Amino acid sequence: MMLPRELIHDRISLSTKPTAKIHYTFAAAKDLQHHTPTLVVFLNGLMSDKTSWLPVMSGVIRGRPEGFPSLLAYDRYGQGLTEDRDPQDQGREGGYGHDVTDVVQDLNQLVMQIVHDKMDKNPAQLQLIFVANSIGCAIARLYAQSYPGSVTALLLLDPMMANSNFDWWPDPDSEGFDPKELPSDVTVQVLREQRAKFAAIFAPSVVNKEGLDRRNLANLLPYSDRPPLVGKGDRQPLLVMVEHDPERFAQESLQVGSMSDLRSTRQS
């Protein structure tokens, strides 16, 4: 896909971590001089990098010839085109480096530098909008919680349950488990296999390429509905959540081999 020329790819060193560079993609706002300066930041999950947002950013640019806000996507340390590791991971337990609090602090520093260097704007006047997926949603939530009054809106796409250990499937070894309650085409053996596969991918203790330690995430965001987020002017930021289509998600999961063909059941 040919990308719009407005999308600029570059690397940046955070002033707080000058020994490492972050790869980012940025598009400066077009024909919005009389509007409040706005920056839309795209936050990806663990299993994708910023390239997953390039079609979206391209669509915004091409679909709004009358003008569009500034757009930013980036690869976190150790992810995608950001080859440098987080400098503060050195000396930490293998596979468990920085946590989401560190990611949020890095993101804030990145936003401040982009606003200053690329937008030439005052961060206090900025409208900051997050478009996030998966663990990116947890990052966006914790950012808004950590920097009250800074975020105008959040669009959370298929957000993860940050306060969960992802042990959602019935445990056949738990007291009171009744195999007769399983669907007719799901055996105890299939259930055991599914629990093991799911845990091997999503459990907070599983290490990842970028060295992001998720083991304390449930402590950082223990509730799904509080505390209330504070946006600009002491108002709550606009919050929109979009659920992944369950049928499409099942098909995609099977294609990447991350899930077995175990259908989830819902109470009507």
* Radius of gyration, in angstroms, nearest whole number: 20 Å
Mean pLDDT: 90
Number of helical stretches of at least 4 residues = 6
Biggest β-sheet, characterized?
A: 7 strands, mixed
**Helix content range:** 25-40%
Strand line-up in the sheet with most strands: 1-2-4-3-5-6-7
Could you please describe the fold and organization of this structure?
- With 268 residues, the protein is an alpha/beta fold.
- The protein is built from six helices and seven strands; from the N terminus they run E-E-E-H-E-H-E-H-E-H-H-E-H.
- It has a seven-stranded mixed sheet with strand order 1-2-4-3-5-6-7, covered by helices on one side.
- A hairpin with a 2-residue loop joins strand 1 and strand 2.
- The relative contact order is 0.14.
- Mean pLDDT is 90; it is low at 258-268.
What are the main properties of this structure?
268 residues; alpha/beta; seven-stranded mixed beta sheet; globular; disordered C terminus
Short recap of the structure:
This protein has 268 residues and is an alpha/beta fold. It contains six helices and seven strands; from the N terminus they run βββαβαβαβααβα. Strands 1-2-4-3-5-6-7 form a seven-stranded mixed β-sheet, with helices on one face.
Secondary structure: elements and pairs:
Elements: E1 8-14, E2 17-27, E3 38-43, H1 54-63, E4 70-74, H2 100-117, E5 127-134, H3 135-146, E6 151-159, H4 188-202, H5 217-220, E7 238-242, H6 246-255
Parallel strand pairs: 3-4, 3-5, 5-6, 6-7
Antiparallel strand pairs: 1-2, 2-4
